[in-house]
Design brief:
Layout: E1 7-13, E2 17-22, E3 28-33, E4 36-39, E5 44-47, H1 51-69, E6 75-80, E7 83-87, E8 89-91, E9 94-101, H2 105-109, E10 118-128, H3 130-133, H4 142-146, E11 151-152, H5 154-160, E12 163-164, E13 167-168, H6 171-193, E14 197-209, E15 215-218, E16 226-230, H7 241-244, H8 251-268, E17 278-283, H9 289-301, E18 306-310, H10 317-329, E19 335-340, H11 362-374, H12 378-404
Parallel strand pairs: 17-18, 17-19
Antiparallel strand pairs: 1-2, 2-3, 3-7, 4-5, 6-7, 8-14, 9-10, 9-14, 10-11, 12-13, 14-15, 14-16
Helix pairs in contact: 1-8, 6-12, 9-11, 11-12
Domain PurE: 277-395
Protein name: PurE domain-containing protein
Keywords: ATP-binding, Decarboxylase, Ligase, Lyase, Multifunctional enzyme, Nucleotide-binding, Purine biosynthesis
């Protein structure tokens, strides 16, 4: 491990990772992965050389993708092949599971539902992490302990009044975490679809950031966290389910599991490319530059590259057509044109049969362009989706504050 940081005490050690305090950077921790694979709450466990590096590569790429989209997470940066630095959190002892396709334990708990049933919208479930909660001194029953991580309903979770990091998980917090969970799933679902992989289901955890009290996505997200079917085919699955279903855990079988995890880590690197789309802002006069710069700034907030051009369609029609042809040649379906016209004399006329949307503000024009481009570009779509979530959370917290006041 690089020696550029000073490790403090071990805050917690689990089956697959160790969390260290960072003495020189208060409020941050280091998560060190282990070469260990487990299933059934540890009932099945084996060493798997190289898993720590694969897991860290996957987790880091996923959190970077989510951070870039605008989702609030604990992830700061990757530190080494097998570790990353994160903001220190008090973990909420709830596992949040989102399902798009019915499979696995859901079928056992819901007899009569066929495998492959598609949930629209995604199905959200919550499970109480009874074993982990022993570290946080929550009261758990013997039945909970025997059932490992029992499923909890919305009502059970709210009535438990879990206090984590000074935050009580009530109705508002539940709704924020529930909406965040589904949004995160949909962002990653759309991202995996860009490389022809179906995200079947996923489990995540949240924490309360110790220095701000914010609810943030935390822990790790790797091949232990989801079911992933290339081309939507269960027979091609590349996730931990392959390990779960092993009857004889041989060295050869473990090597297959490792290859699957490595395959996922390689594909994850392809999920967060720069947007392939762009907005072209064409102004009829250079006097409109200030207004066009506002459009470009708004576009970039959604991750949309933006270029400005100057050309008058009625004064230099041939040149305007040449500019359009230029961008058609650079990928016509990936470009959107925002034409700034009529600002000098307040007069705009559209030709019959031409589909045009008129906007009076720069921000509205940029948002519309981003929404259209997001239909075919998952990077832009993710930023829009995260922006909607953060706006909703802001209103939710403002409403809570008003009720208290």
């Amino acid at each position: 491990m690089p020696r550029d940081i000073k490790l403090g005490r071990v805050l917690i050690e689990g089956k697959t990772k160790i969390v260290y305090e960072l003495t020189e950077t208060p409020g941050q921790v280091l998560l060190q992965s282990k070469d260990r694979i487990t299933a059934g709450d540890g009932a099945k466990a084996h060493n798997l050389e190289g898993k720590a590096a694969i897991s860290t590569a996957t987790t880091s790429a996923i959190f970077e993708l989510l951070n870039n989209a605008g989702i609030k997470t604990h992830f700061v940066k990757r530190h080494s092949d097998t570790s990353f630095i994160a903001r220190r959190c008090e973990m909420i002892p709830i596992e949040w599971v989102t399902r798009r396709i019915a499979t696995g334990s859901f079928l056992k708990r819901n007899p009569g539902v066929r495998e492959g049933y598609r949930f629209c919208p995604p199905k959200l479930e919550t499970f109480f992490k009874a074993t982990y909660s022993l570290f946080r001194r929550y009261e758990i029953s013997e039945q909970d302990d025997a059932n490992h991580d029992p499923q909890w309903s919305r009502e059970q979770l709210i009535e438990a009044k879990l206090n984590v990091g000074g935050v009580t998980i009530g109705t508002d917090e539940y709704e924020i975490l529930a909406k965040s969970t589904v949004t995160i799933f949909e962002i990653l679902e759309k991202s995996w679809a860009s490389v022809d992989c179906t995200l079947v289901d996923m489990k995540i955890e949240f924490g309360v950031q110790t220095d701000t009290g914010e609810l943030v996505l935390a822990d790790v997200i790797d091949s232990d966290s989801w079911r992933l079917w290339p081309a939507g085919d269960r027979r091609l699955m590349k996730d931990k389910q392959v390990y779960r279903e092993l009857k004889d855990v041989t060295p050869e079988a473990l090597e297959t599991v490792k290859r699957n995890f490595a395959w996922v880590a390689e594909r994850v690197a392809l999920l967060s490319p720069k947007p392939h789309a762009r907005v072209v802002v064409i102004m009829g006069s250079p006097t409109d530059t200030g207004h066009c710069e506002k459009i470009c700034a708004a576009c970039r907030q959604y991750g949309v590259p933006c270029e400005m051009r100057v050309c008058s369609a009625h004064k230099a029609t041939d040149e305007a057509l040449n500019i359009l042809a230029e961008y058609e040649g650079k990928g016509g379906n990936s470009n959107r044109v925002v034409a700034v016209a009529g600002r000098s004399n307040g007069w705009v006329q559209f030709c019959l049969g031409l589909a045009v949307v008129l906007f009076l503000s720069a921000e509205a024009a940029a948002l519309n362009a981003a929404q259209i481009l997001g239909l075919s570009d998952h990077v832009i779509w993710s930023k829009l989706r995260a922006s909607q979530l953060n706006t909703w959370i802001g209103l939710k917290m403002a409403d809570k504050k008003v009720r208290k006041d």
